Automatic annotation (TrEMBL):
One Pfam family recorded for the sequence: POPDC1-3
Bias type Polar residues, positions: 331-352
Protein name: Popeye domain containing 2
Topology of this chain in the membrane: Multi-pass membrane protein
Subcellular location: Membrane
Origin organism lineage: Eukaryota, Metazoa, Chordata, Craniata, Vertebrata
GO biological process: heart development; regulation of membrane potential; skeletal muscle tissue development; striated muscle cell differentiation
Annotated family: Belongs to the popeye family.
Membrane-spanning segments: 32-57, 77-97
Annotated gene: Popdc2
Location of the POPDC1-3 domain: 26-251
GO molecular function, one term: cAMP binding
InterPro entries: cNMP-bd_dom_sf, POPDC1-3, POPDC1-3_dom, RmlC-like_jellyroll
Region of interest (Disordered), residue spans: 304-364
Length: 364
């Protein structure tokens, strides 16, 4: 045991004794191999960093093989350098295979970079999402309908990739759907997985469109199995529905040009023609009610306060008191109801649905 420890200590502290040093330098192939190794070990991380690493180390070890064959004449140098060269080539082949497998079609790659990459969605989770839709891109020609009101069953969820789709109800335009928006997010959220229903709106392509579609049952199975994907779809669908609601809110106006706010729960917040297209008769009635509210305020006399006799300085006088601002009284709800009661309730009683515009403006 003591003999072994003394041998190790001799190797560590004294080192091997060289009988003679070579006077000539190694050949250019040896120095070229070391240059390749120096550049190779400066590689970064990631897939492309590995490409650089093994792509530079491979030629470096190949130079070592040539050096061992031509100059050093050592079989061990040749064998080890050859094995390292083969290992680098196998790593390069594996990286090429991984890149080819991970490559997405152009439409899905653009969808990932536009919608999912800003949310830092992992690529593996995204692959599960597009695998659920069978990686198929569907198309719609101009004026082709995606869904018909009251006829098309709600059995899928679709996302528009390109083009523009018009949404209408009873022939009345509601809003547009633009790329990277869901086509049927309200319908998806309105039904439970075990329920069935039909579309309440008609979706028509205004231009040539492309979209992807997830079958309802397959997507529900994926959401039940993957909690992260379920939270992701909840966020995307909630944002999409809110955008559609605010788009509808831009078209809802009350009397005298006041806008309804969808955050007020006491108002009917659906679009209808009676709020904006009431016709000349309703406009005339609105003007009469408006004049009746403003005319009493204009008839009030203007009073001027007298100037105090001893107020310093004597050259300054008090100006007349400002005219109290005429407050327009809100028209009585009975007046509004007595104008066109048949017009307000005709659409409601015709189909038994929610009114398309506010019937009674609440007193705030």
């Amino acid at each position: 045991m003591s003999t072994n420890s003394s041998t190790v200590g001799q190797l560590l502290w004294q080192g091997p004794v060289c009988s003679s040093w070579k006077q000539d330098m190694e050949g250019a192939v040896y120095h070229l191999a070391n240059c390749f190794l120096l550049l190779g070990f400066m590689a970064g991380s990631g897939v492309y960093g590995c490409f650089y690493l093994f792509g530079i180390l491979g030629p470096g070890y190949l130079c070592y093989v040539l050096w061992g064959w031509l100059d050093a004449c050592g079989l061990d140098i040749i064998l080890w350098s050859f094995l390292l060269t083969v290992a680098c080539l196998l790593q390069l082949a594996h990286l090429v295979y991984r890149l080819r497998v991970d490559t997405l079609p152009e439409e899905f790659d653009l969808l990932y970079k536009t919608l999912y990459l800003p949310l830092q969605v992992p690529l593996q989770a995204y692959k599960q999402i597009i695998h659920c839709c069978h990686e198929q891109v569907l198309t719609l020609s101009t004026e082709q309908t995606y869904a018909v009101e009251g006829e098309t069953a709600i059995n899928r969820l679709s996302l528009l990739l390109s083009g523009r789709i018009r949404v209408s109800q009873d022939g009345q335009f509601l809003h547009y759907i633009f790329p990277y928006q869901f086509l049927d997010s309200p319908e998806w959220e309105s039904l439970q997985p075990s329920e069935e229903g039909t579309f309440q709106v008609t979706l028509t392509a205004e231009t040539d469109c492309s979209y992807i579609s997830w079958p309802r049952k397959s997507l529900h199975l994926l959401l039940n199995r993957e909690r992260y994907i379920s939270c992701l779809f909840s966020a995307l669908l909630g944002y999409d529905i809110s955008e559609k609601l605010y788009t509808l809110n831009d078209k809802l106006f009350a009397k005298f040009g006041l806008r309804f706010d969808i955050r007020l729960p006491s108002l009917y917040l659906v679009l209808g023609p009676s709020a904006s297209d009431g016709g000349p008769e309703s406009e005339k009635d609105d003007e009469e009610v408006f004049e009746a509210a403003v005319s009493p305020a204009l008839a009030r006399p203007i009073t001027v306060l007298p100037t105090p006799p001893c107020s310093p300085p004597p050259a300054v006088t008090n100006f007349p008191a400002p005219l109290p601002r005429a407050r327009m009284s809100r028209p009585d709800s009975s007046v509004l109801d007595s104008r066109t009661p048949s017009q307000n309730s005709s659409h409601v009683t015709s189909k038994g649905q929610a009114p398309l515009a506010p019937v009674h403006t609440p007193e705030l």
